[in-house]
TrEMBL record, chain A:
<dbReference type="InterPro" id="IPR008274">
    <property type="entry name" value="AldOxase/xan_DH_MoCoBD1"/>
</dbReference>
<feature type="domain" description="Aldehyde oxidase/xanthine dehydrogenase a/b hammerhead">
    <location>
        <begin position="24"/>
        <end position="133"/>
    </location>
</feature>
<dbReference type="Pfam" id="PF20256">
    <property type="entry name" value="MoCoBD_2"/>
</dbReference>
<protein>
    <submittedName>
        <fullName>Xanthine dehydrogenase</fullName>
    </submittedName>
</protein>
<keyword id="KW-0500">Molybdenum</keyword>
<dbReference type="Pfam" id="PF01315">
    <property type="entry name" value="Ald_Xan_dh_C"/>
</dbReference>
<dbReference type="GO" id="GO:0016491">
    <property type="term" value="F:oxidoreductase activity"/>
</dbReference>
<dbReference type="InterPro" id="IPR046867">
    <property type="entry name" value="AldOxase/xan_DH_MoCoBD2"/>
</dbReference>
<dbReference type="InterPro" id="IPR016208">
    <property type="entry name" value="Ald_Oxase/xanthine_DH-like"/>
</dbReference>
From TrEMBL, chain B:
<dbReference type="InterPro" id="IPR036010">
    <property type="entry name" value="2Fe-2S_ferredoxin-like_sf"/>
</dbReference>
<dbReference type="Pfam" id="PF00111">
    <property type="entry name" value="Fer2"/>
</dbReference>
<dbReference type="InterPro" id="IPR012675">
    <property type="entry name" value="Beta-grasp_dom_sf"/>
</dbReference>
<feature type="domain" description="2Fe-2S ferredoxin-type">
    <location>
        <begin position="3"/>
        <end position="79"/>
    </location>
</feature>
<dbReference type="InterPro" id="IPR006058">
    <property type="entry name" value="2Fe2S_fd_BS"/>
</dbReference>
<dbReference type="GO" id="GO:0016903">
    <property type="term" value="F:oxidoreductase activity, acting on the aldehyde or oxo group of donors"/>
</dbReference>
<keyword id="KW-0479">Metal-binding</keyword>
<keyword id="KW-0411">Iron-sulfur</keyword>
<dbReference type="InterPro" id="IPR002888">
    <property type="entry name" value="2Fe-2S-bd"/>
</dbReference>
């Protein structure tokens, strides 16, 4: 459904439009936003120190009487939240009861005139608990495992097709292995923060609805009263508003969320978390004064989502030629007791290879753990790690080159839906990557060589991610006069390049140079936009802008009057029902393993991706290599260590939860097939935010096997697992 | 206890009265509205708060403001030739339209995505080039006695590993550092180094 409209800006490496602000540090993130007339107040939360039970008593007197403290909020005085049933979200029921469901949960908060006073006072709050037995350990043999109704976002938990057991029993070659991935933490560099301002009664809040707002119709006098302003660090300002406004008894137009720059999210800012509610509770207690709340790095480990640990049993069966007869992928993972999040770990396996007999299953344990949530490529990141490592093991069993094994099992149609692919070019990605990387054909282990005290090897893995589009985005196009246009859409740039890429898309859609277009994002005063999640941002917002620009031209022509305005929305894509829309990639890694220390160094990585049309090669390459870098980090470094005696993530900081540092990263390169997906949307592009991490850990782990003969089945692949 | 402190920030003399527990980072951000240095961990583990103090890169979250009386502090917003007039840091390439050479290189090579670690990365890089020019070795320097440091890729990566980037822009940061590296090392004599050494 793409058109032949000529493209000038799209496809060119336009530099980030907000780049100057970012290299000087003048781009304002949430905590840096000036709010309110007077000096702001500072909130510092108090967290539970037991993993399960009830707060019997909170001693707050010492905190309340400390110099500079304004108030201490507890469940006794924080005030009720409305409509929690509507929100269906126990994570957001902040300070609504004395129950403790996990260690590191909010039990109180101090509001003070300075951050120093707030932090000191928070340390003076003493809690007595009635403790209950707790369970934090994920075990595959636990009797409490259950099947969720659906897995994120709305997939069936279990699927079965054919006779999997029969195929496994009669297979020439079989792999039956269990993989473990640990608790992982998003850790965007900007900790989760919010500045909240609850207007005082009779305050200066009355103001007209701004042009381009999609707020509901204002009250009868034509003026909307914004009662609450929240400067949030979020992947979706509108999502934060639509979730939080009902909690506080506000109509949508009575709340404004502002979030122009976001210091990374990786899923952890995809939905509001408890700290957003806490900041607003504080602000409601001190109307007229802004309250600033930033989680400490340590606090983010229990309060900003994380990736569940997974136990994944993979069984693959193949005939003597390596053609797969069966694949079974059974996953056990955890969720919290206050909110269910079921990671869709096995879903990628449903469509990846052409085995006629397939089974996938997800089982959950509801534990006294922090609330798990989205982390870059939820589902695919851990699930494809397991599948693609198992494929390498199958290649070993079949004595086949791992690329050849994948070529032999590339399905002509989506095995799950039976639909044709909109474009499955995995084979080309593998072949191009093999050529560029200098891949030497042969089964796993055959590329091994020793150089001094180092074992060198290469690994490959496939990568995939669905092309999601989220319905509901709207945009506004305005001719400002003198051939300059403003395009408004409440989208988010979390480092993804949205400021720039939407400008390119709008410029082409309006047939103007990028300098003639200003895009405004990151504010609920702008038209509704869906969340920057599931790699759906560009694929949802871009076509919305294209459609709006077309309507503008239809209505106003090529020479519009100054001030001419048009709104539009994301058009339906009938092709989405006809085709299986997925991106693919091939990931290659070369490693050197020190024979004495077991240290793994990834000396080269290459990703070749098929993701439809690339809007901006500069920012796209950054996203691809950024995802691959996070995948390397997942393979070798990241491990949230949950102490089952205390329910505490004991390594809750950046010194002991290691994310890849500069010295860990050598040569990481990404390229892509030049293509347009005619079925994805009017731009022909699929999202790219997540596919870079998918498959990267398996490529590294498979390379370590090639080098050492040791199979890494438990992430991260730290030296202790390699020293023999 | 409140203390009155005077220091130079990005070339401008600033005074403020703060709780003596206030870090330089919080003083800059909360008292002086200088939000270029970022708070990523508050524990000296991520580097986002890196500034130049009297020409040397420092983690401002680990410095109490009371220890900075009379200091010359330069943030990423004060590095540019046009906006900063600090004596301690000069743009080695001269006029660059308000941006330091390192900043320009970060733009040219897309050395960032979300931008939150970026001001710290840039200040750190400027300080790092000075350290190398002064002959200070790193963990990967092979000849500790040789004061002529060659900043190859391994040296650059090692010396910049105190600045974490979760977006994973390291490859592009490295490209920016290669491009921004001063052409001829300053080769300053040890006598010109700051008194308190490394």
């Amino acid at each position: 459904m793409t058109t032949g409209a000529r493209s000038r800006a799209v496809g060119t490496p336009v530099a980030r439009v907000e780049g100057h602000a970012k290299v000087t540090g003048t781009a304002r993130y949430a905590y840096e936003q000036p709010a309110g007339a007077g000096p702001p107040l500072y909130a510092h939360p108090v967290l539970s120190t037991v993993p399960h039970g009830r707060v019997r008593a909170l001693e707050t007197m010492a905190a309340r009487t400390l110099d500079g403290v304004v108030t201490v909020l507890t469940p006794d005085n924080a005030g009720q939240l409305d409509d929690l049933r509507g929100a269906q979200d126990g994570e957001l029921a902040v300070l609504q009861s004395n129950e403790v469901a996990f260690r590191g949960q909010f039990i109180a908060v101090v509001v003070a005139e300075s951050p120093e006073a707030a932090q000191q006072a928070a340390g003076l709050v003493e809690a007595d608990y009635d403790e209950l037995p707790h369970h934090t350990e994920l075990r595959g043999d636990s009797g409490d495992l259950y099947t969720p109704e659906r897995v994120n976002p709305a997939f069936a938990p279990d699927t079965v097709e054919g006779d999997v057991d029969g195929a496994l029993d009669s297979a020439e070659h079989m792999v039956d292995v269990t993989y473990l991935t640990p608790m992982e933490h998003n850790n965007p560099m900007e900790p989760h923060a919010a500045v909240a301002l609850w207007e005082a009664e009779g305050g200066p809040a009355d103001r007209p609805i701004p042009a381009g707002s999609d707020a509901e119709r204002p009250s009868s006098d034509g003026v909307a009263t914004v009662r609450l302003t929240l400067y949030a660090s979020t992947q979706g300002a509108h999502t934060v508003r639509s979730t939080l406004a009902p909690l506080f008894g506000l109509r949508k137009e009575e709340m404004r969320v502002v979030s122009p720059h976001v210091g990374g999210g990786f899923g952890s800012k995809g939905m509001p978390h408890a700290h957003d509610v806490l900041a607003v509770l504080c602000a409601r207690a001190v109307p007229g004064r802004a309250v600033k709340l930033a989680l400490t790095r340590q606090q983010t480990f229990s309060l900003a989502g994380h990736r569940t640990p997974t136990l994944q049993r993979l069984r693959l069966a193949a005939d003597s030629t390596g053609r797969m007869a069966a694949v079974a992928h059974e996953v056990t993972e955890h969720t919290s007791t206050v909110k269910e999040f079921a990671e869709q770990t096995a879903c990628g396996t449903r469509m990846m290879y052409a085995a006629p007999n397939r089974r996938t299953a997800h089982r959950l344990a509801a534990l006294n753990v922090p609330v798990p949530s989205w982390m870059r490529a939820p589902g695919e990141a851990p699930g494809i790690f397991a599948l693609e490592t198992a494929m390498d093991e199958l290649a070993s069993a079949c004595e086949l080159d791992p690329i050849e094994l994948r070529l032999r099992n590339d399905p002509p149609l989506d095995p799950e839906s039976g639909k044709p692919w909109s474009g499955r070019r995995l084979v080309e990605c593998l072949r191009q990557g093999a050529r560029r990387f200098g891949w030497q054909e042969g089964p796993p282990g055959s590329r091994r060589r020793r150089e001094g005290d180092q074992l060198v090897g290469m690994g490959v893995a496939a990568s995939t991610y669905p092309c999601y589009t989220s319905p509901g985005s709207r945009a506004l196009v305005r001719h400002d006069g003198t051939e300059h246009y403003t395009v408004r859409i409440g989208a988010a740039d979390i480092g993804t390049g949205t400021w720039t890429t939407l400008t390119q898309i709008a410029a082409d859609a309006l047939d103007r140079p990028v300098e003639a277009v200003t895009v405004e994002i990151g504010d609920t005063d702008l038209p509704h936009a869906t969340v920057a999640g599931g790699s759906s941002g560009m694929a949802s917002w871009g076509p919305t802008i294209v459609a709006t620009a077309r309507r503008f031209r239809t209505e106003h022509g090529q020479q519009p009057a100054a001030g001419a305005v048009m709104t539009g929305e994301l058009p339906d894509n009938p092709d989405a029902e006809q085709f299986a829309l997925h991106s693919f990639g091939a990931q290659f890694a070369e490693v050197r393993v020190d024979v004495d220390t077991g240290e793994v160094r990834v000396t080269r990585m290459l990703g070749v991706f098929s993701a439809g049309r690339i809007i901006n090669p500069r920012t796209a390459r950054s996203q691809f290599i950024g995802g691959m870098t996070m995948g390397l980090s997942m393979a070798l470094h990241e491990h949230g260590v949950l102490d089952h005696r205390t329910g505490h993530v004991v390594n809750h900081d950046l010194a002991s939860y290691h994310i890849a540092a500069h010295a860990d990263i050598a040569d990481v390169e990404a390229e892509w097939l030049e293509e347009t997906d005619p079925h994805a949307n009017t731009m022909g592009s699929r999202g790219i935010g997540e596919i870079g991490i998918v498959g990267a850990p398996a490529a590294v782990v498979n390379a370590v096997y090639d080098a050492t003969g040791i199979r890494g089945r438990s992430l991260p692949l730290t030296p202790d697992k390699l020293v023999r | 206890m409140n203390v009155r402190i005077t220091l130079r920030v990005d070339g401008e003399e600033r005074s403020t009265t703060v709780d003596s527990r206030t870090t330089l980072l919080d003083a800059l951000r909360e008292h002086l509205s200088v939000t270029s240095p970022k708070k990523g961990c508050d524990h000296g583990q991520c580097g986002a708060c890196t500034v130049l103090i009297d020409g040397r890169r420092m983690l401002s979250c680990l410095k109490l403001l009371v220890g900075c009386d009379g200091s010359d502090v330069v943030t990423a917003n004060g590095l540019g030739a046009a906006s900063g007039k600090s004596e301690a840091v000069r743009d080695p390439a001269g006029e660059l339209g308000g941006l330091h050479a390192v900043q320009r290189a970060f733009l040219d090579h897309d050395g960032f995505q979300c931008g939150y670690c970026t001001p710290g990365q840039i200040c750190s890089a400027v300080g790092m080039f000075e350290e190398a020019a002064a002959g200070q070795p790193s963990h990967v320097t092979t000849d500790l006695a040789d004061e002529r440091i060659v900043l190859d890729d391994a040296e650059l990566r090692e010396r910049m590993s105190g600045n974490l980037c979760r977006c994973g822009a390291y490859v592009n940061i490295l490209a920016a550092l290669r491009a921004a590296q001063p052409r001829s090392p300053a080769g300053r004599a040890p006598s010109e180094l700051p008194e308190d050494g490394a």
